[in-house]
């Protein structure tokens, strides 16, 4: 079974299996996250919770009890607003004046898995357990992965809570909608009137 899963995976096997020997896999669950259509920040917060073990009643901040997290379809992740252009990653090479930058859109075209990894790592506490938790995170751009022989458990994302609008905001939104409808109706009336005048002139 392991050989079949390995042959079905066409990606970088060395990168996919890197650091597994340093993880005590006994008693850990293999949670699978489907990133297709998910918002980047919301998905990263759920992955960070599971990889820390905060969803377990035995959670302790000084122990690494998190489960293995496999994130699939990283290339189909979504972002809200204008983050594809406005969100920028910075790093420095160490040489004077060599401050590099890359937008989220360029990062998604180059390596979409790195965008999710950075989002998750920046939600983890910066302590000695951070590297061990990073090794439990396996991200793949597509739906293929080499862990088909493991007892995988699909993770169900919690429903997105939509906050109700305040009465003042709701009234303002209704006024804007009515205003837009009136402007559209007036525009249509002017167009119809113009057509009638042109028809009378030609007649």
From TrEMBL:
Protein's name according to its UniProt entry: Ribosomal protein L13
Domain of life of the native organism: Eukaryota
Keywords: Ribonucleoprotein, Ribosomal protein
GO BP terms in the entry: negative regulation of translation; translation
InterPro entries the record matches: Ribosomal_uL13, Ribosomal_uL13_bac-type, Ribosomal_uL13_sf
CDD domains reported in the protein's UniProt record: Ribosomal_L13
Annotated family: Belongs to the universal ribosomal protein uL13 family.
Keyword Ribosomal protein appears in the UniProt entry: yes
Entry-linked HAMAP family: Ribosomal_uL13
KW Ribonucleoprotein (keyword) present: yes
An example Gene Ontology molecular-function term: structural constituent of ribosome
GO cellular component assignments: mitochondrial large ribosomal subunit
Residue ranges, annotated region (Disordered): 174-203
